[in-house]
Amino acid sequence: MPMMPQIEHIVVVMLENRSFDNMCGWLYRDGPPPSQFLPVSTKNKFFNGLHQGLFNPVSNDYFKGQPSPPPYPIFPNANALNMPNPDPKEEFDNVTKQLYGPFEPPSENPTYPNLGFVVNYALTTGTNIPVQIMEPFSPAQVPVISALARNYAICDEWFCSVPSETWPNRSFVHAGTSNGNVLNGNPPHPDNWDVKTIFNVLQDMAITWRVYSDTTLTPALTHLMFKKLWHFAFDKFAHFGEFKEDCAKGTLPKYSFIEPSFLKDPNDEHPPHDVTAGERFLHDIWIAVSTSPSWNKTVLLITYDEHGGTYDHIMPPWNAATPDGQSDPGQEGFHFNRFGIRVPMVILAL
């Protein structure tokens, strides 16, 4: 028997390039801890967010065992709502250095776990203020996602699929594979992402689905990525305004995927975009879903595609299942046997 047999509609919202700690690490710093934990058999019942004592070194000398300047501690909040600025790097090689330091290869027992974010940010962006990487948002700075997480459920062990950038991770969300790719491509080539998606499976099963996008300058990113979806352009891809209308009428499909605006008036929260715009977008989605006549039959999932170079203190696990032959190995010799960095996953349902 399904755990939630009343659910008829699944709505997934995917924003951009923020780690768990960056958005939600301080979620319970100034208030009581969560009242419930799942699974109920969990022995260590604590929220695995930020805590005092976390730091990142600011010099490569630290990784050589040499004297180095004092490290940056984790800070209580960000100094601005568009931080970090400039945008950190999130390509495969840079993520490896963020997780394992500038000199060591990946291992299951790293010497410097999650200690390479600051030096990688300084090196790759040339910024003289790399401390921004250690300045996550406080709950007061991101009140919408914080309120939704506290009042419903948040996963503190949700890792993105690939320790790399946007297209591979979004491909895993839609297709369960990135077809061996760990890089977006410059520019991305459609042939590299020519795989069957969840939308094709739903179509074959006669289950309703739709992709709603808040973009106005370009087609939905999901449409651009996958050639097998191109012929659905006119009936399965819609503007965000139509999502709100479908919510109000109680006519949502069984599966809805929502994209933000990435370019014009961006509300995707991708650094250095102001997260306030993304918060307003989430609020609009929440109001539309929660006031829909179908709300008691709907589950809303809010997540991010990948960490985007922003700091997180938990090492991603290994022993991921390699999805297919194309990925064994794929680009960069990667076997897709370890996960990417933690991102928020908030789950809302009655």
Written overview of the protein:
The protein contains nine helices and nine strands. It has 350 residues and is of the alpha/beta class. It has one domain (9-47, 139-348): Alkaline Phosphatase, subunit A (3-Layer(aba) Sandwich), CATH 3.40.720. A seven-stranded mixed beta sheet has the order 4-9-8-1-7-5-6, sandwiched between helices. It has a two-stranded antiparallel ribbon with strand order 2-3. Strand 5, helix 7 and strand 6 (237-239) form a beta-alpha-beta unit. Helix 2 (92-100) packs antiparallel against helix 3 and helix 8 (240-249) packs parallel to helix 9.
Keywords:
single chain, alpha/beta, globular, 350 residues, two-stranded antiparallel ribbon, seven-stranded mixed sheet, Alkaline Phosphatase, subunit A
Return residue spans where pLDDT drops below 50 for at least 5 consecutive residues. Answer: none
Termini gap: 18 Å
Just name the CATH architecture: 3-Layer(aba) Sandwich
Any idea what the shape is? globular
As a percent range, the share of helical residues equals: 10-25%
Tally of extended strands? Answer: 9
Largest pleated sheet:
7 strands, mixed
Classified by CATH, the class is Alpha Beta
Helical stretch count?
A: 9
**What is the spatial order of strands in the main beta sheet?**
4-9-8-1-7-5-6
Oligomer: single chain
Helix/strand order, N-terminal first = EHEEHHHEHHEHEHEHEE
Structural class: alpha/beta
Beta-strand proportion = 5-15%
The number of domains is 1
As for the CATH topology, it is: Alkaline Phosphatase, subunit A
CA-based gyration radius: 20 Å
Query: What is the typical, i.e. mean, pLDDT?
Result: 95
